[in-house]
Inverse folding.
């Protein structure tokens, strides 16, 4: 009896110290994460211009439904989501499988080469791509000298090609990053499974689709959710690819690179400053991200 | 007792020293171009410290976007600290800041004699008959051309004076046919040329009362037609981004550049082209109101109302930017900055002939054109309107939308975005 009482006493003391240790962090989280989340929800019910505020209730959210730029921004990232994310994840999966082959030599070099883009700065690599894909840049010169194309491709001057450029850039930057998750996942799949499949006469392709993909499903789900959220928050790449001559009037030719995050930035800092409206947009983005993640869980059939 | 007196004396002396240190007023300034406005402010500061030694300066260089972000967030949050005494604001943004943050900027109406500044600059910083800024550099536009290319195509400098844009395009076609060079380099989705075109006719995206004026604006309609015409005629080398644009004329790929006077530094950076350039007034539109003078860009200084050393900052701007003619000569020679304080334009530097431009009195010409620039109220939505127009341009270029339809669509988009 007295023994257990003492034990509780110690636990109380431990608990107290535990709370003291994390209190600083908690204060930080409340001040810099919880408070802004709640305050921006409050702010999203106002239309602001600088420090002039008018209460509009759901007005900002209703305005969003008719805002052609916002809808255009959503359409733009939808294209990225449908085209770029699958290509990138599929490539990452292929690379990971190839690199997981025990007979492969110089694995470290390939891995490093494929992962290296993931550690470069977003701004730096985007500016590099901008130079490479300019009208007389490396890519056009290369393609014309090989006689693959006659006229230079208008990479950053045509709404369609601007998106292609963005997709290529994003794929270069993020494939290696996702590949690392797959490699980690593949290492947990025992080699015996593949050996058994081989003895049973399954080809490499069949092994890939019948063993690798199903066993990696949780990781594929994880990467597709993070990539979806990443796409929704896309900012650095379009912002830097689209810098104009003098005014930068549109984000890419005909606003073809406009993303919700860039739009939020413009609403806050480039246009007449409307922080209330910007908060409303960010809340809608969060909701879209949540819905998409939910759908992916359902489609992947994740069960607890 | 003696000791006590001594102690008091020591304390008094300490207090006095502290006070005399505190007397040195610190003026913080935010601007964005180390080779231009930062360097110029440094020069101004050095000059002022000779007049008033009790001042020290902290001139902070940031990216332009960062200046705007910081200013926006600090002003919107309502805190009174963290802001500088003086901030540089782009002219197109002036009204946006003045109207969004009323009371944040010092009213300078009575401090300066604004008749001494270029009229169009004063207009854009005036709100409810009060003037809030000190006009700084001008973006007076010019038509820079390559003498050698145009001569080869059969044009004399006199043929390029006071022409219309239609004539400009005609000349461009001849240049292209005879020399193989493009007339200009252009980003088809950049709003810079649009602003030159509109201001040359004293028009903007808004009417006199500030209401959106896009769909049935004849000047805008003509400007969009010219954008399409320039693209269709093939006289423009398409570029994307600043570096490619500057590269095009530095490498001698184009025969002309039509933009603000601030480009002179970039043109002259290519020393091998010395003597090959000339300058003429910017072309006008085929519209009655349009003149051969316009503007692109430019910025001005503003004093924060709640800053600690506001009055010293105002005195500083007064003594240098509205009195020191020598200063204006120096920044013109060293930085190519065309100031908008008119009395300085009688100075020697303005009259100098520039061998790079075939001994033309370049700055004399620009200051004459500057006086003719029609004043325009940029309003608070210039960037929104720009974006609306440029987002319909792809459909105008392909012919999917007629200009009327496109402008109607742009106006609708614009109205949605400012609602």
């Amino acid at each position: 009896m007295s023994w257990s009482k003492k034990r509780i006493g110690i636990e109380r003391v431990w608990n107290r110290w535990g709370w003291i240790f994390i209190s600083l962090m908690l204060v930080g989280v409340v001040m810099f994460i919880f408070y802004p989340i709640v305050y921006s929800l409050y702010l999203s019910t106002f239309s602001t211009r600088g420090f002039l505020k008018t209460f509009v209730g759901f007005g900002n959210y209703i305005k969003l439904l008719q805002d052609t730029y916002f809808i255009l921004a959503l359409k733009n990232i939808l294209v990225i989501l449908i085209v770029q994310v699958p290509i990138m994840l599929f490539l990452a999966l292929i690379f990971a499988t190839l690199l997981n082959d025990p007979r492969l030599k110089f694995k470290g070099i390939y891995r490093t080469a494929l992962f290296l883009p993931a550690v470069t700065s977003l701004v730096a690599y985007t500016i590099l791509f901008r130079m490479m894909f300019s009208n007389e840049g490396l890519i056009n010169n290369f393609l014309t000298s090989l006689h693959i194309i006659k006229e230079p491709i208008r990479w950053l001057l045509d709404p369609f090609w601007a998106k292609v450029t963005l997709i290529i850039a994003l794929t270069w930057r993020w494939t290696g990053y996702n590949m690392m998750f797959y490699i980690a996942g593949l290492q947990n799949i025992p080699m015996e499974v593949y050996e058994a499949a081989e003895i049973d006469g399954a080809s490499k392709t069949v092994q890939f689709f019948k063993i690798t993909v199903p066993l990696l499903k949780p990781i594929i789900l994880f990467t597709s959710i993070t990539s979806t959220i990443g796409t929704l928050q896309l900012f650095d790449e379009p912002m830097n690819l689209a810098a104009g001559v003098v005014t930068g009037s549109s984000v890419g030719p005909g606003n073809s690179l406009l993303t919700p995050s860039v739009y939020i930035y413009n609403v806050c800092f480039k246009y007449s400053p409307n922080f209330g409206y910007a908060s409303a947009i960010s809340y809608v983005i969060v909701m879209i991200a949540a819905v998409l993640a939910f759908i992916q869980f359902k489609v992947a059939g994740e069960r607890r | 007792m003696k000791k006590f007196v001594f102690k008091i004396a020591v304390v008094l002396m300490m207090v006095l020293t502290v006070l005399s240190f505190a007397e040195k007023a610190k003026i913080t300034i935010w601007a964005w171009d180390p080779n231009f406005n930062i360097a110029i402010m440094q020069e101004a500061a050095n000059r002022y410290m000779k007049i008033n030694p009790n001042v020290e300066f902290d001139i902070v260089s940031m990216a332009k976007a960062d200046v705007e972000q910081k200013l926006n967030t600090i002003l919107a949050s309502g805190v009174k600290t963290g802001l500088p005494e003086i901030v540089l604001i782009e002219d197109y943004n002036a009204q946006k800041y003045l109207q969004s943050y009323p009371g944040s900027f010092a009213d300078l109406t009575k401090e300066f004699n604004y008749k001494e500044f270029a009229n169009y600059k004063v207009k854009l910083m005036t709100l409810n008959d009060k003037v809030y800024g000190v006009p700084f550099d001008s973006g007076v536009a010019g038509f820079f051309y390559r003498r050698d290319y145009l001569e080869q195509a059969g044009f004399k400098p006199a043929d390029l004076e006071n022409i219309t844009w239609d004539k400009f395009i005609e000349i461009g076609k001849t240049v292209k046919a005879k020399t193989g060079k493009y007339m200009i380099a252009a980003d088809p989705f950049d709003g810079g040329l649009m602003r030159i075109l509109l201001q040359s006719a004293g028009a903007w995206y808004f009417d006199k009362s500030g209401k959106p004026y896009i769909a049935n604006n004849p000047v805008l309609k003509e400007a969009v037609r010219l954008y399409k015409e320039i693209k269709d005629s093939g006289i423009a080398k398409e570029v994307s981004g600043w570096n490619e644009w500057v590269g095009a004329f530095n490498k001698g790929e184009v025969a002309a550049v039509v933009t603000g006077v601030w480009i002179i530094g970039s043109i002259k950076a290519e020393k091998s082209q010395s003597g090959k350039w000339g300058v003429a007034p910017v072309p006008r539109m085929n519209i009655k109101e349009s003149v051969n003078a316009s503007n692109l860009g430019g910025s001005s200084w503003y004093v924060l109302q709640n800053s600690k050393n506001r009055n010293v900052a105002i005195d500083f701007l007064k003594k240098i930017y509205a009195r020191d003619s020598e200063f204006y000569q120096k920044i013109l020679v060293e930085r190519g900055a065309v100031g908008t304080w008119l009395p300085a334009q009688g100075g020697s530097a303005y009259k100098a002939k520039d061998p790079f431009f075939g001994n033309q009195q370049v700055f004399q010409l620009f200051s004459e054109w500057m006086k003719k620039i029609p004043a325009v109220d940029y309003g608070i939505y210039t960037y929104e309107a720009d974006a609306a127009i440029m987002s319909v341009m792809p459909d105008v270029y392909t012919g999917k939308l007629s200009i009327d339809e496109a402008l109607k669509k742009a106006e609708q988009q614009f109205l949605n975005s400012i609602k």
